Amino acid sequence: MPSSPSPSPERAIYGFVLYLASFLGLGLYIVWAYIPEPWLHAAGLTYWPQKYWALAAPVYISIAVLFILVFYVGLNFTVTAPLDSVHTVTDEFAKERRQRDLPPSAIPPLEDIHLSIVNRRLYREGSD
Mind listing the pLDDT tens digit for each residue in 13-72? Predict the structure, then answer.
């Protein structure tokens, strides 16, 4: 099956149904949050959560998302190697440079440059 940037028909249908369902859910939420309880009871809609949750649920969700973001950043800080660690320079996945006989117009293969070579290039005396 050839790759295409457009979604398959099934995914397009699922996306459209989800789009409509989200608007239906938003409509129900607004009706529940703004219409007084006696009007809802008069229409026969008696089983609704308390109006407290119309404000509390979005606040709880917002605070949970904020907490997750802060926790994620903090977790990344704790698992990052310190600046004086050798793991900030290289690791077991580093690809060492090898001499290869490549044509002059060839693109060189992807490989890591050793730190001593970088320092020599950047900081040697008399460089232009």
Answer: 999 999 999 999 999 999 999 999 999 899 998 888 889 999 999 999 999 999 999 999
- Whether 91 and 85 have beta carbons less than 8 Å apart is answered as no
What sign does the dihedral 70-72-74-77 (CA atoms) show? negative
String of DSSP letters for 39-104? HHHHTT------THHHHHHHHHHHHHHHHHHHHHHHHHHHHSPPTTSGGGT--TTPPPP------T
Number of other residues whose CB lies within 10 A of the CB of residue 95: 9
The first and second tokens of residue 65, run together, are: 């998302």
Residues 6+ apart with CB under 8 A from 110: 95
For residue 124, the model assigns a pLDDT of: 84
